[in-house]
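[Discussion] Sanity-checking designs against the backbone

I'm trying to build intuition for which residues belong where. Below is a structure token string of 239 positions. I'd appreciate it if someone posts a full sequence so I can compare it with mine line by line.
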């Protein structure tokens, strides 16, 4: 099985068939995140929505928006997969924080607007195909990746390369460092998705593993993969 976090390079028309084979595969995997709603898949981008996507702020070539600041989405919350699909319709995906600077930008958004929580694209590789990956064990340390770009995260018990701190919270429901998979002990549901919580456990703004069925607002970030796909299939469309 190829790495789920393989970097997505700029796409060409000739590579599009291979790209969408990956997307279809990812869709089947992502559907597992919403076990309470079986049979769901990742949404394809909608060209007109992509062309008119909200652009709340800009960072290193990517546009972002918070659903709470978009009138049509302002009062809505989504489970993790539905959150991804809302973003994907706009040629975007749930936000991924690969650098401390980007992470601080999202933390500032949350703090300034007193947002209680959001989903990110962070996902635990605990679905079919991950069980034979010895390099991902133990999962709570080595098994996390950004689903938006399939990049592997740093081990959860270490400060990521280039960062000055570990963004995972030091506490949670079980009063231990995150990720702690706390809900599994309560109802057998794995906490497979990464949320940023705002001082829920008197721990400031920090990363937490959360069961994917919980509903939260989201921050969407441009997806180069989806933008390139729509650009190649809709000549003349301004994105």
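Best answer:
Here's mine. Compare freely.
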């Amino acid at each position: 099985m190829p790495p789920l976090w393989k970097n997505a390079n700029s796409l060409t028309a000739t590579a599009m068939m291979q790209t969408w084979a990956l997307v279809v595969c990812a869709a089947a995997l992502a559907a597992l995140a919403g076990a309470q709603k079986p049979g769901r898949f990742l949404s394809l981008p909608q060209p007109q929505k992509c062309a008119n996507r909200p652009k709340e702020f800009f960072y290193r070539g990517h546009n972002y928006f918070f659903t709470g600041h978009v009138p049509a989405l302002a009062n809505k919350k989504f489970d993790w997969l539905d959150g991804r699909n809302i973003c994907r319709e706009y040629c975007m995906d749930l936000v991924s924080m690969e650098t401390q600077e980007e992470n601080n930008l999202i933390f500032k958004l949350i703090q300034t607007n007193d947002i209680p929580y959001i989903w990110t694209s962070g996902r635990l590789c605990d679905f079919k195909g991950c069980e034979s990956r010895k390099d991902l064990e133990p999962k709570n340390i080595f098994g996390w990746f950004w689903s938006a770009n399939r990049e592997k995260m740093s081990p959860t018990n270490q400060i990521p390369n280039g960062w000055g701190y570990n963004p995972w919270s030091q506490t949670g429901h079980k009063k231990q460092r995150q990720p702690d998979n706390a809900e599994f002990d309560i109802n057998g549901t794995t906490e497979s998705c990464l949320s940023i919580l705002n001082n829920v456990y008197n721990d400031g703004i920090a990363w937490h593993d959360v069961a994917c069925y919980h509903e939260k607002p989201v921050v969407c970030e441009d997806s180069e993969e989806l933008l390139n796909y729509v650009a190649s299939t809709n000549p003349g469309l301004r994105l």
